[in-house]
Automatic annotation (TrEMBL):
Residues 1-19 form the signal peptide. Keywords: Signal. NCBIfam families: Por_Secre_tail. It holds the Pfam family DUF5074. Residues 693-758 form the Secretion system C-terminal sorting domain. The lineage of its organism: Bacteria, Pseudomonadati, Bacteroidota, Flavobacteriia, Flavobacteriales. The keyword Plastid does not apply. The keyword Signal applies. This is DUF5074 domain-containing protein.
Length: 760
C-alpha cells in the first residue's frame, strides 16, 4: 500500500513539473522544463509605485489602470509606467494600443487575429529622442518597417526575426528565444500573478495593473520593485522655428507626407499624419505652398493603392499652416493630376494641374473652372509647372508652350512668352526670370519684354516627364538667383550655380554638394534647393545614386549665403523622396511711415507704393496693392497703376478716406489715407509725392529714395544725439547701429524731410 502512495506521489510530481505553460493563451510545450516557465506560477510582490506616481495618462473616463513595460535590456530607464483611463469595457489590448497611438515614442510588433487574440511579439521605446522608431526583419535594411499608430503588424510568430533600427532604443522581441511574460493585478489582488491569457482576453477593472516583463532565453527576471513614470509626450505644435520638407514618399507603398526640421536640427516626421490620426496626402506629393494661414499640399494622384497604413487625402489637401490640422481635401482638382499651387488674393488661388490651371475658392474651399487659355496639350506636352505671383500678374510655366501671363483680376491669359521653359521665379528687384536648358531669360514684369543670357558651361535640365518643382530659386535678401546644374536629362549635377541679377554674372561653382568621392555619389532630388527667406540660408536635399535601396539614404544640408556648410541633417533610412522645402510665413507686411496718412491734392497726384511696405519673410516687391475702399469717390478717384503707384485725381472739393490693402502672400495690412481735394479740376500736371526710406525696419543698408537732390542727411538716436553717418549713393550702412528707433533728417534742394526708422 505504501508503494501505491509513493507511485501516486511520483506521478503527481511528474505531472506538475511537466504541466503545460500558456504564454498569451498559447500552449507552450517547448518551455515547460525551463525555470522561467516554472516561475510563472509564483506570485510577485506588489511594487512601491502607486497611481499617484503616474505622470502620463492616456484616454478619458472614470476608470483607470496602470501599464508597465519592463525590457530587462540593461538600458535606462527601464520598467516604464503609463496610465490609462476609460469608460465602459476595455481590455489589455485596448490599453496597449491606446498608449502606442498617443505616445509616439512607444511602438509594438503585433500578430493580430489569431485564435488566441492578438499576440504581443515586441515592444520598443525611443530612449534617445532620435525618433528612429522602426524595425528590420531578417537583417534586411532595404525594406524597413515603420509603426503606424505605434503598431507594426506581422502574420506569424516570427518575432525573433526583428531588430530595432536604432540600437540605442529599448527593443525586445522574441517567441522562441525568450518571450514577453504578462503579469496582472486587479484592485483587490494583494500582488501580481502570471497570466496565461493574452491581452485580448484580459478585461480591465478600475484599479488594474498590467506588466509586460520580457524574459530573455535562459534568464528569469522578476518584476521591478519600482516603476519609472513616463513623462507626457508632447506633439510638436510650433511650426515657426524651422522649415517643412514635403515628400513625394514611396510610390506603391505610402501616400505623400511632410516632415518638419527645427532650426536646432530636430526632425519631426510625418507631422501632418501625426496631427490628423494617420491621414496623409495623395500619391506622390511634389509640391506644397503656404498662403495666408493655410498650407496647400498638391499630389499627382488622389491615393496610393498600395498604402494600407495611412488614410489618403486626395490631390489637394488644405491644412492649418500653424497647427497642421486638416481643413479640407479633394480627390478631383479639375480632372487632371496635381502639380502646383499659388495664392492670388484673399479669396482665390490657382491649382496647377496636368491639364491646365484651375480656380480655387479659398473662402469656400471649392475647386472651380479652368482658367481659359491654360488647358490643352497631352499629359507630357501641356502640363502646368511652377507659378509665381507678382504684384500685378501671374506667370505660369506650361510645358512646350512657354510662360503664360495671367491677369488675376480677370483670370485671363494676356500674353505668352514662348519657349521650352523649365521654371520661373521673381528676383528681389522685381525682375522675372525663366530658365531653359542653357540660358536664363529676363522678363520685364510689366511690359513682358525679354532679354536672354547664356549660361556659360553648365546646363539646367528639368524633369517634365516625372514633374518636380525644380531647383531654380531666388534670395529674399540678395538680388541673386540659384539653381542646381545638370549633367543630362537623367543625371543631376553636384554644383549650385549662383547668378547675380544686378551684374548679370554667373558663378557655376558656388557650392559642390558633399559625397562626390563615394562609389555611390550624393545627388539632388526633387526641387532639391530652396532659400530661407529670413536667414538667407540655402537648404539642399540629396539622396544616394544607384537606385533601389540607395534612395533610402537622404541628407539635408544648410549653407550660408557665402557657400559655407553650417549644418547637416541625416534622415531616417526610408524612401522619403523629398520634393520641396517650404518655409513658414511668420510675419505680416509692415507699412512704413513714408506713406502719409493725409494728403492735399490740387491736381492728379502720384504716390509710389513700391517702397512703402515690406515683409521679412516674403518678397516685398511682390506685395499686391489694391484700393480696398474709397469713402467718397466723388471727391477724388483712386487707382493703382501697373507701376504700383497710387494715382489720386480730385473730382470736387472735400475730403475722402482711401483704404489701401497690402497683401503679402495672403497676409494683409491696411493703410488709411485722408485725401483733401482743394480744387474741382481733375486736370493739370501730375505731382509725385515721393520720399521713401526703406527697408523699415532695417538690418544693414537703409535706402533713401527721392526725386529731389539730396543735400544733407543727419541721423539722430532716440535721445536726440546725432550719429556719425556716411551717405553713399543715397544709402546708409546701419549694420553697426544699436537696435532701436532712430530719426533721419533729409535735406533736399526742395524740402526738409523728417522720418523715423527702426534698426533690428
Amino acid at each position: 500500500m505504501k508503494k501505491n502512495y509513493f507511485l501516486i506521489i511520483m506521478l503527481l510530481f511528474a505531472f506538475l513539473t511537466n504541466a503545460q505553460i500558456k504564454v498569451q493563451g498559447v500552449p507552450r510545450n517547448d518551455i515547460k522544463q525551463k525555470s522561467t516557465a516554472q516561475n510563472q506560477h509564483k506570485k510577485s510582490a506588489t511594487t512601491a509605485t502607486t497611481f499617484n506616481d503616474i505622470q502620463y495618462w492616456v484616454g478619458t473616463g472614470s476608470n483607470q489602470a496602470a501599464f508597465v513595460v519592463q525590457w530587462n535590456d540593461g538600458k535606462n530607464s527601464d520598467a516604464l509606467i503609463w496610465g490609462f483611463r476609460w469608460d465602459g469595457t476595455a481590455t489589455g489590448e485596448d490599453m496597449l494600443k491606446a498608449i502606442a497611438k498617443a505616445d509616439r515614442r512607444f511602438f509594438s510588433l503585433l500578430y493580430q487575429g489569431t485564435q488566441f487574440g492578438t499576440a504581443i511579439g515586441g515592444l520598443g521605446f525611443d530612449l534617445n529622442g532620435v525618433n528612429a522608431n522602426g524595425l528590420y526583419k531578417d537583417g534586411n535594411m532595404t525594406y524597413p518597417y515603420y509603426p503606424v499608430a505605434g503598431i507594426i503588424n506581422t502574420t506569424a510568430y516570427d518575432f525573433d526575426n526583428y531588430t530595432a533600427i536604432d540600437v540605442a532604443d529599448h527593443w525586445q522581441s522574441a517567441w522562441y528565444n525568450g518571450f514577453w511574460s504578462y503579469w496582472v493585478k486587479d484592485a483587490t489582488d494583494p500582488d501580481f500573478g502570471f497570466s496565461g491569457l493574452g491581452a485580448t482576453s484580459r478585461v480591465l477593472e478600475n484599479g488594474s495593473w498590467d506588466v509586460w516583463n520580457f524574459q530573455p532565453s535562459g534568464s528569469d527576471f522578476s518584476i521591478a520593485s519600482t516603476f519609472i513614470p513616463v513623462t507626457p509626450y508632447v506633439m510638436p505644435t510650433d511650426f515657426t522655428n524651422g522649415y517643412f520638407m514635403v515628400n513625394e514618399d514611396w510610390f506603391g507603398h505610402t501616400n505623400g507626407s511632410v516632415n518638419f526640421i527645427n532650426n536646432n536640427g530636430t526632425i519631426n516626421y510625418r507631422v501632418y499624419s501625426a496631427t490628423n490620426d494617420n491621414h496623409s496626402f495623395g500619391a506622390t506629393t511634389p509640391y506644397g505652398a503656404i498662403y495666408g494661414d493655410k498650407f496647400y499640399f498638391i499630389s499627382k494622384q488622389a491615393a496610393d493603392g498600395g498604402d494600407t497604413q495611412y488614410t489618403p487625402g486626395g490631390r489637394l489637401v488644405v491644412a492649418d499652416a500653424k497647427t497642421m490640422k486638416k481643413i479640407a481635401q479633394f480627390d478631383n482638382i479639375g480632372g487632371g493630376d496635381g502639380r502646383s499651387f499659388i495664392g492670388i488674393n484673399e479669396t482665390t488661388g490657382y491649382i496647377g494641374a496636368s491639364n491646365g490651371i484651375y480656380l480655387f475658392d479659398i473662402a469656400n474651399m471649392k475647386v472651380g473652372s479652368v482658367v481659359t487659355g491654360t488647358g490643352g496639350g497631352s499629359l507630357y506636352a501641356g502640363q502646368i509647372g511652377n507659378m509665381i505671383r507678382t504684384s500685378q500678374y501671374v506667370f505660369a510655366v506650361k510645358q512646350t508652350k512657354g510662360i503664360l501671363v495671367i491677369d488675376p483680376n480677370t483670370n485671363t491669359v494676356i500674353n505668352t512668352i514662348t519657349g521650352a521653359f523649365h521654371s520661373v521665379v521673381q528676383a528681389k528687384d522685381g525682375s522675372v526670370w525663366g530658365i531653359q536648358n542653357q540660358k536664363i531669360i529676363n522678363i520685364d514684369a510689366t511690359t513682358f519684354a525679354t532679354t536672354e543670357y547664356a549660361i556659360p558651361t553648365t546646363k539646367y535640365l528639368g524633369s517634365w516627364g516625372a514633374w518636380n518643382a525644380g531647383s531654380f530659386t531666388y534670395s529674399n535678401q540678395q538680388n541673386v538667383l540659384y539653381w542646381m546644374n545638370s549633367v543630362n536629362s537623367f543625371v543631376s549635377g553636384a554644383q549650385i550655380v549662383k547668378f547675380d541679377v544686378a551684374s548679370k554674372t554667373f558663378n557655376e561653382n558656388f557650392v559642390t554638394i558633399p559625397g562626390q568621392a563615394a562609389t555611390y555619389k550624393q545627388i539632388p532630388y526633387g526641387a532639391s534647393l530652396r532659400i530661407d527667406p529670413v536667414s538667407d540660408h540655402l537648404i539642399v536635399n540629396t539622396t544616394e545614386s544607384g537606385f533601389g535601396a540607395h534612395y533610402q539614404k537622404n541628407w539635408i544640408y544648410t549653407y550660408d549665403n557665402t557657400g559655407n556648410l553650417i549644418n547637416t541633417n541625416t534622415l531616417d533610412d526610408y524612401y522619403w523622396f523629398p520634393a520641396v522645402a517650404v518655409f513658414p510665413d511668420n510675419t505680416s507686411p509692415v507699412v512704413n511711415a513714408t506713406l502719409p496718412s493725409q494728403v492735399s491734392v490740387t491736381g492728379p497726384t502720384v504716390i509710389d507704393l513700391k517702397t512703402v511696405v515690406s515683409d521679412t519673410d516674403n518678397l516685398s516687391i511682390a506685395i499686391v496693392k489694391t484700393v480696398k475702399s474709397n469713402s467718397n469717390a466723388g471727391v477724388a478717384s483712386a487707382v493703382i497703376n501697373t507701376n504700383d503707384e497710387l494715382v489720386l485725381t480730385p473730382q470736387s472739393l472735400g475730403s475722402t478716406t482711401i483704404v489701401i490693402s497690402f497683401n503679402s502672400n495672403g497676409k494683409v495690412a491696411e493703410k488709411s489715407i485722408t485725401v483733401n481735394a482743394t480744387t474741382t479740376l481733375a486736370t493739370g500736371d501730375f505731382k509725385k509725392l515721393k520720399l521713401a526710406i526703406y527697408p523699415n525696419p532695417v538690418s544693414d543698408i537703409l535706402n533713401i529714395q527721392t526725386e529731389d537732390k539730396v543735400l544733407n542727411v543727419t541721423v539722430y538716436d532716440i535721445s536726440g544725439k546725432s550719429i556719425n553717418t556716411r551717405v553713399n549713393n543715397n544709402q546708409i550702412n546701419v549694420s553697426d547701429f544699436i537696435k532701436g528707433m532712430y530719426i533721419i533728417n533729409v535735406v533736399t534742394d526742395k524740402a526738409n524731410y523728417v522720418q523715423k526708422f527702426i534698426k533690428n
